[in-house]
Amino acid sequence: MDLEQLKYPIGKFKMPADFTSGSINTFISDIENFPSLLRKEVEALNNEQLDTPYRPEGWTIRQVVNHCADSHMNSLIRFKLALTEENPTIKPYFEERWAELADSKTMPVAAALTMLDGLHTRWVVLLKAMTSADFEKTFVHPQSGRIFSLKQTLALYSWHCQHHLAHITTLKNSRNWN
Prior knowledge:
- The chain is mainly α.
- It has a single domain (31-174), classed as dinb family like domain (Four Helix Bundle (Hemerythrin (Met), subunit A), Up-down Bundle), CATH 1.20.120.
- 64% of the residues lie in helices and 3% in strands.
- Strand 1 and strand 2 form a beta hairpin.
- Helix 4 packs antiparallel against helix 9 (150-174).
- It is globular and about 45 Å long.
C-alpha cells in the first residue's frame, strides 16, 4: 500500500451532493454503531499492538482510539452549540497536539472506549430527535471562516468513524492480527 492509501483507506471525505432522510439515517446509524465496532477491533489487542502506528509516522492504534474520543466529544459540543445558539463560532483544537498528550499516548484504551459508549449514546438520542430544520442549523469554524451545517457535520463524522476504523482494520489485516 502506498502512503496515501494508508492515510485514507476509504478515500478522502466527499461532501454528499444531496441529503435525504435515508442518508441522514445511515449517517446516524454509523455513529450509533461505531463504539461497538471499535471495541470489537481493539479490545483483544496487547500493548505492543496498541502502540503500533497504522502507517509510517502516523498515530498508534492507542492514539487513534483516544483521538476518536476527543474528536467526537468536540463534535457533540458543536452540535449542542449550533442547536442552542444562532450560528455560533466554535472552538477549534489542535488534534495533533492532543494526540501527543500522556492520556492519548499511554493510557489503556478502556477509558476512551467507555467515553465513546456514553458519548455516542447521548449523541444518537440527540440526532434522532432532530428535525430537518435542526440539521440546517450552522456553526462557524474560525480557522477557515467556513460555515458548516449540522447535516454536513453529521456526514463528516459518519466518514470519520469509518475512516479511523479502517486505519485499525487495515493494520490488523496487514499484520494478521485477526
